[in-house]
Structure formats: C-alpha cells, structure tokens
Specification:
The chain is built from 15 helices and 25 strands. It has 621 residues and is an alpha/beta fold. It folds into three domains: 32-214, Class I glutamine amidotransferase (GATase) domain (Rossmann fold); 223-423, Rossmann fold (3-Layer(aba) Sandwich), CATH 3.40.50; 430-609, GMP Synthetase, Chain A, domain 3. The chain starts with 31 loop residues before the first strand and ends in a 12-residue tail after the last strand. Helix 4 (226-238) crosses helix 5 (251-264) and helix 14 (522-542) packs antiparallel against helix 15. It has a nine-stranded mixed β-sheet, with helices on both faces. A seven-stranded mixed β-sheet has the order 15-16-17-18-25-22-20. Helix content is 28%, strand content 22%. The chain has helices spanning 42-51, 107-115, 203-214, 226-238, 251-264, 283-294, 306-312, 319-340, 356-361, 379-386, 399-409, 413-416, 480-492, 522-542, 587-598, and strands at residues 32-36, 56-60, 73-76, 101-105, 119-135, 150-162, 168-172, 180-183, 188-191, 242-247, 269-275, 301-304, 348-351, 390-391, 440-442, 445-456, 459-468, 498-502, 514-515, 553-556, 558-559, 565-569, 572-573, 581-582, 603-609. The longest helix is centred in the middle third of the chain and has 22 residues, at 319-340. Bound molecules: xanthosine-5'-monophosphate. Residues 357-358, 361, 374-375, 420, 422-424, 550, 577, 613, 617-619 line the site of xanthosine-5'-monophosphate. Xanthosine-5'-monophosphate (XMP) binds next to helix 9.
C-alpha cells in the first residue's frame, strides 16, 4: 500500500562540506598493506591504520613478496584456520626479507612463527574475549605504554609454544606465554591479541608505534574528508542512472541515501520504506518524520508488508532460514514496489547502506568464515550485484566511520546517535525452537537447551546457553565477579557459547522452566515489542542508553505452562559491532526494569546476557 508518493523536482539539501579530496596517497602504492588471511577483523586493521593517517590497503595473503616491495609496513591479519590445517592461508615467506617491517596479528603471528621455524600448537584452554596482557622488556612496539597489565581482546585456541631463532618474548597473559614476540633485527613483530579492536586498551598506541616508530610510515590520509570522496565514487559508479533505496531509518541507509542525494541531486534518488511487521514500537512514524527533515521537500514511499513477512516465517526455526526467507520476501516486496512505482521501466539501480561488517560476516570477504547471512547479501541481491545494478557507498566503512560521514553531511545528531538496529528486525531477536526440553544441571548452573549464534576463533557457532547461578555479589551491583565467572566457564567448555543469569526479585526455580516449540508469531512479536519498548523507555530515562552502543532485547521460548516466554537483556558496549563487551546495569535501574518486564503477560523469567563478543554474537538470531 502506498502511504505517500515520492515527489519530483526536489532539490538536494545543501549541507556544508569541505570538498577537498581525502586521498593524497597513490592508489596501489599504499605504505601499509594488510594481508588477508580470512580474519573477521582484517579490514578493521586497514581502517584503523587509515584512522591513524596512513592510507592502507588489503591484499590476499598469498600476494607475492615482489608486489609488496614498495610497502613500509606489512600486517598479517588474524584468521579462522589453524596454521596446520590442510590448505590454510599462508604468506610468501620472502616478505620477511623485504625492507618492510612486518606485524603478525593472532593467526598472522602464528603463521610468522611457523614459517620462520618456531612451533604452534592447539592447547586445551582457549582465550576468548577479555584477557590481561603484561608487556615485557623495552620493545619499541610498547613505547609510551606503562609496563603494567592491560586489557586486551583475544580469540584463539592455537598458541605459540616455541619461538623461531632470533625472536624474543615481549609480553604474555596468564594463559598465553607468547602473547607478543619480536625480532628487532629482522623487523618482525607479532601479537596474539587484537590491537585493532576497541576493547584492547592501548591497541591504537601499539599500532601507532608499529607504523611510525618501527616501520617509519608518513601520514598521507585525512579521515575527516571522506564524504567528498564517497560522493565522487557514487557519481562514477552510478553514471547517468538513478538510484532507489530501501531505507530502514537506521544510520547506515540514511547516510547512504543522503550521500546519494548530495552526489546526484534529489530528482535522481528515491527512498522506499518497508514496514515488515518486525519493527519496534512507533518506528514507522519516526521514520516518516526524520525523512521529511532530511529530504527537504522530498518524501518517501511507505510500503506496509507485515502479512507477507509473517506468513513467510510460519513454522521456521533455523536462524539462517529465517534470514533467507526475510531476504527473499524483501525482494518480493521490492519487485512489487518496482512495478507499481515504475522503477523497472527507467534507468534505476538499487542503492544500499551495506557497511563493511555486513559483508565480512556473510562470508563476503575473501576468506572469512560464514557467520550468518545478512539480508542484503542474499541470492537475489547477489544477482543485482552481478548485473552491476547496485551502489553501496559505505561498503568499506565501519559503523563509527559511517557516523562520522553523517556528521560531515550535517545529518541530525538524534538520528546519527541512534543505536544500530538489524535489517531483519525483531525476527532475529525472537528466538525459536523445534524441541521441547528441560534445562540440565551442569558445572556452574544449568544448560539451557536454547540454541543461539556465536562467533569463536573467527568461526560460527550455534550452541546452547549456560544459565549460571546468580552470584551473591550482584545484589550489591557488583558485576565484576559475575563477568569473571562467566568468562571462565566459557573458556573452559565447548558445550555452550553464551552465559546468562536470572535477574529481578521474582526469579522462578529453574526446575519449573522448560523450552517449548515456538516460531515467530504476531503474538510473540507483540510481546517482544512491548518488552523492548519498556526497556528503551527505562534505558533512555535513566541515561543508561548513552552508556551502551546497542541494547537488544530478546524473547526466548523458555517458560511455564502459563507464562510461555522469557526475556533476555543484552546491553553491550561496542564501537563497530565487530567486538562487544556486555555491560552491567546499575541495580537501581535494573530492579524496577525487571519488575516492569515481569508484569508483561506471558513472561516467566528475566535473563541477563553476560557474554562478550566473541564468543557470543550481539544478536541471538
Ligand atoms: P552480531 O549479532 O553479528 O551483530 O554480533 C553485529 C551487528 O550487526 C547488526 N546486525 C545486522 N545489521 N542487517 C543489519 O543491517 C543484518 O542482517 C544484521 N544482523 C546483525 C547487529 O544488530 C549488531 O549491531
């Protein structure tokens, strides 16, 4: 149904912008090359380097050393494989003889050690998420960093157990004795942790030391002028065609849409908003209002499509199947809109706000393992890509870079500072189950037979959840103990990928809870919408909303005969969605919140997700 019609003869908004290009570096001659061994964070490394003012590019790990002769610094990324796996990614060993300095990160470190004559082994105890790193000696890599333990982010089970000749250990953690190594003479360095992720404190300084102190790079890139570069790229990619967008009201599609408006003029850009029925409470009204502001006299077309999406999801439990069907339905709706709005007759292509993590987690980057299918990468869209009928101006950027571009474009802060919300909407926060099962007692608490998606060692996992007994210290609002225990349990077991605890004053005995068969229904979505709206209201009113990057609220089919579902709170801190730290809520906010949630009809328990990413993903799916 068409709620409003797109206007013609619209003028592009004129936001203030410095149009000087950001790029001074010569393409193909980047000072820094990141060799991609398939890691989740590979492009994040390249982007962190650009943020430090040096243009960097990503190349396949097997790139011959001769093609890297111009580089001052080579960084070998992390990856999902084991260096001993058949056919696992490698690098040309001659890169270690180039004048460039080399930094191996995670798998990159292990690869360097193996190729240079050391040893890497799988050990019983992995390290996922938070770890405490102790630098040693006087390495230039840690220049300016106090010799005290610092928080780092890890994701590994393989570990270096013997160093190659000429190397020394320059740091360790309780679990990993060779957490940082170096051969200053060869200019080769390695860290087992991920300096590129925001949860590694001092990670930025470590990269800075490597680039400027060790490799001698010079600044040649200005991140504050990216919007102008993106507009040039849009004009080049689109040519004389027009662009239509399926906008979501989120930061990504809004920024991409606005960039296209600026680059092409409002006559050549249209926005369509599909109400899938998987939206949060009040969302459609909000979107209408915001786009009226952004587009000036431009308006958007709103398509109400809830019944189609609901019928597609009938009986579906598997997360990937949910995503596939939603993606497919999006294309169906899209086709309908294309015909009624005559986008197919003319010279139109599809614009999307896809950002880099969407691509990498769908297995789109060279070797990254498939963690899940994002709906803007399903088959039909792949076909449009193959036909060259798509423009994705943000495809190389991370969320915080997108916000920065949004600021450069003058998009209002209330929209830019909104928490990100996934395209498939509440469908991936409404957990389904095809079994009836009871929680099983295990070490640390109860194993809940609810499966959720996770990411461990850069690979997808789909496993049950540990319901940990709530530590007494939590009553006083002390979260540290709960988080430490949760991390310990996860590192020691492969039986689950998440840890939750019960919160609130009316916790039901676990023996009374059971998992039931459940799929996505209007009733469950309405229940989730209500819970989500309560959480958002309390979070905003208490100021907690500003302390977290995202606050998913998940409905799980764990309950009793009268109260069939439970709700999971998952507030996390992140910068780019690639890694995340679960955040503890102040008790004075959590207590009344859980009381309000218990009052929603059908809710048996209120759970709190203590899992960081990795090993859990942010969404449960
Ligand atoms: P995960 O669950 O993988 O989520 O840790 C990382 C970030 O991505 C968001 N997300 C999506 N965003 N389309 C989107 O636009 C999607 O299909 C999608 N799935 C997850 C998620 O909310 C988190 O911010």
């Amino acid at each position: 149904m068409s709620v409003s019609q797109p206007h013609s003869n619209r003028n592009a908004p004129t936001f203030p912008l410095n149009d000087t290009p950001a790029r001074e570096a010569i393409p193909g001659r980047a000072q820094v090359v990141v060799l991609d061994t398939g890691g989740q964070y590979c492009h994040l490394i390249a982007r962190k380097v650009r943020e430090l003012g040096v243009f960097s590019e990503v190349k396949p790990s097997e790139t011959p050393a001769a093609e890297l002769a111009h580089a001052k610094a080579i960084i070998i990324s992390g990856g999902p494989c084991s260096v001993y796996d058949q056919g696992s990614p490698s690098v040309d060993p001659a890169i270690f003889d180039l004048p460039a300095s080399v930094l191996g990160i995670c798998y990159g470190l292990q690869l360097a050690v193996q190729l240079l004559g050391g040893r890497v082994e799988k050990v019983a105890r992995g390290e996922f998420g938070k770890a405490s790193f102790q630098p040693m000696g006087e390495s230039p890599l840690f220049h300016g960093i106090p010799p005290a333990p610092a928080q780092v982010w890890m994701s590994h089970r393989d570990t270096v157990t013997a160093l190659p000749e000429g190397f020394e250990r320059i740091g360790s953690t309780g679990t990993c004795s060779f957490a940082a190594i170096a051969s200053e003479a060869r200019g080769v360095y390695g860290v087992q942790f991920h300096p590129e992720v925001v949860h590694t404190h001092r990670g930025k300084e470590i990269l800075e030391n490597f680039l400027f102190r060790i490799a001698g790079c010079q600044r040649d890139w200005d991140p504050s002028r990216v919007a102008g570069v993106l507009e040039d790229e849009i004009r080049a990619a689109v040519g004389d065609r027009n662009v239509f967008f399926f906008i979501s009201g989120g930061v990504d599609s809004t920024v991409a849409f606005t960039l296209c408006l600026r680059a092409l003029g409002a006559d050549r850009v249209r926005g369509i908003y599909v109400d899938t029925g998987m939206m949060r409470k009040g969302e459609t009204a909000f979107v209408k209002e915001i786009f009226a502001q952004i587009g000036g006299d431009a308006s958007i077309h709103i398509e109400l499509a809830e019944p189609w999406f609901l019928s597609q999801l009938e009986g579906v439990v598997d997360p990937e199947e949910k995503r596939r069907r939603i993606g497919q339905e999006f294309l169906e709706v899209q086709n309908r809109v294309l015909e009624t709005e005559h986008f197919l007759d003319g010279n139109w292509i599809l614009g999307q706000g896809t950002i880099y993590p969407d691509t990498i987690e769908s297995g789109g980057a060279a070797k990254a393992d498939l963690i899940k299918t994002h709906h803007n990468r399903v088959e039909g869209v792949q076909r449009l890509i193959a036909e060259g009928r798509i423009v994705e101006p943000l495809h190389n950027l991370y969320k915080d870079e997108v916000r920065e571009v949004g600021r450069q474009l003058g998009i209002p802060a209330p929209l830019l500072d909104r928490h990100p919300f996934p395209g498939p909407g509440l469908a991936i926060r409404c957990l389904c189950s095809d079994e009836v099962a009871v929680p099983q007692p295990i070490a640390g608490g109860w194993l809940l037979p609810l499966h959720s998606v996770g990411v461990q060692g850069d690979s997808r996992s789909y496993k049950p959840v540990l319901l940990m007994s709530t530590p007494a210290s939590l009553a006083a609002g002390e979260w540290e103990d709960a988080y430490e225990r949760a991390t310990d349990y996860i590192n020691a077991s492969t039986a689950f990928n998440r840890v939750v605890i019960q919160v609130g004053d009316s916790q039901p005995p676990v023996e009374e809870l059971r998992v039931r068969k459940a799929t996505i229904t209007r009733e469950r979505l309405d229940r989730l919408r209500e819970l989500d709206a309560i959480v958002r209201r309390v979070s905003l009113e208490s100021g907690f909303e500003e302390r977290v990057w995202q606050f998913p609220v998940i409905l799980v089919p764990l309950g009793t005969a009268e109260k069939p579902d439970s709700v999971v709170l998952r507030p996390i801190h992140s910068v780019d969605g690639m890694t995340a730290q679960s955040v503890g809520m102040p008790m004075e906010v959590l207590r009344p919140l859980s009381k309000a949630l218990f009052e929603v009809p059908g809710i048996a328990a209120v759970l709190y997700d203590l899992t960081h990413k990795p090993p859990g993903t942010i969404e449960w799916e």
